[in-house]
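User: Teach me something about this protein's shape.
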Amino acid sequence: MRTRIEKRRHDNVFNEYTPAQCRYNALENEWDLFEEFALEVKSKNGQDYAGYEHSDSEDDGFDPFEGYEHLYVSEDQNVSPTSPDGIPPSGASPGASPASPEPDEVAVPMDAETNLLVSLRLMYGFNPSPTAQTPHPQAPNLRSWSDVLGVIGTKSEPDVSDRDKVLIREFISCLIDSSSGLPAPSDDLNATSDQPLATSFALDTVERISEDLYVFKLPPSPSCKWVISVDRPMTVLYICRLVASAPNMHTVLTIAYHLLEHHIPFRTLLLQASSEPEQLNLPYADNANRFNKHQFTTADFDSAMLECRALLGRPQGRAAILRGGIVGRIAREFGSKESGLQGPSIEVTVHHSGYFVPSKHDRYFYWDDDLTGEEIAWRGEQTTTVSWFPPPDIWDKQGYGWPGWTETNKEFFQQWIADIRKGNAKPLSRQNWWRKVRSIKNTRSVLKNNRERAKAYVELNIHAM
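Assistant: First, the predicted structure itself:
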């Protein structure tokens, strides 16, 4: 029997179905509940869907329309209580002031967190020696100081000395040219530098539990039982530098908060005993098709954003916040960063459903919330070929994947949303997104070489168990 109900009026009926048997119509605010949907998923993918079961928590009664009006408030009101550079309201001009941030969040880009030198050390390992001689400006690939700022994603003029400007320009110039070695005194990955990372941080406190997953043994916090893990060597070094910058001050909670503040991806792994679980693997499937010549409007965008909010209302929706980058930034429009600090949801702790990886202890697994391939399509895909926002892999590879959220990232996001609201932007294909977010060659070179040198250093110093 196929029944169409409104979820908020019939919670008891809704909770009898699994997510694989539920489809939400954002325009009509209706849930379509049908057991055969699960069989349809199986027939498409050749496997059963090891889906999430619904709990009896308040999140299961989530109404995706409730609170959505924050996207339509006037310019003198807050656009979003959870993000420093929120979605401008409908009709706002590209130059409109961004929304006021939440009280405990400083609405500044990463490179102004304390000053430019701090962010350059965290991102790239730049640590200028106070006794090093200032080199003659030799940076043929960076003609001016403004070129340097553009490469590292900075728009405003930072407060640094003329001497530091010369050292920064030399360092970034060498990082652009992979054939040039970085100046040893300023490179914390070089053993001969004044403050090498290997001596300022105990690398043996990073456990490599698989080829591409690293778990940090950070000082615990009484507020959480989970540990931080990352899958990118560049992020591994970022956390190492952050801890080393303030010895005996950080805990797993303070590090996690910093990563959330700057949209840096990580996981909150919880160690639990369990039998061998089934892998959750459901690829993206079309769920909002349009005709080939369909003219997209803001109504299509609003529908996609309501789907986002519906997803983030689920317990495992916090996984989107933890993804960082462009995915995490979109998720912050509808969810609070504090959800990332709450640790794995009931879907993990009770139902053992989500992301998992074996630990070195027999019959124990590390667990965290996760999104399937279909769920991650909430970022705005209207068909299999176009999307409202750039795919995360293209965003990273084309020069917007700085280790943290920069002023350039912020400017692009705000301008793109403003263009959508004015009817000047439409969903793009992967190929068109590739062109749209393609940054200057020097920026792509810096990010690529920084990833490669981080990977080489981690491979040499942190071995898999």
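Now, about its shape. Residues 185 and 194 are 6 Å apart (CA to CA). The longest helix spans residues 441-461. If you'd like, I can walk through any region in more detail.
User: That's plenty for now, thanks!
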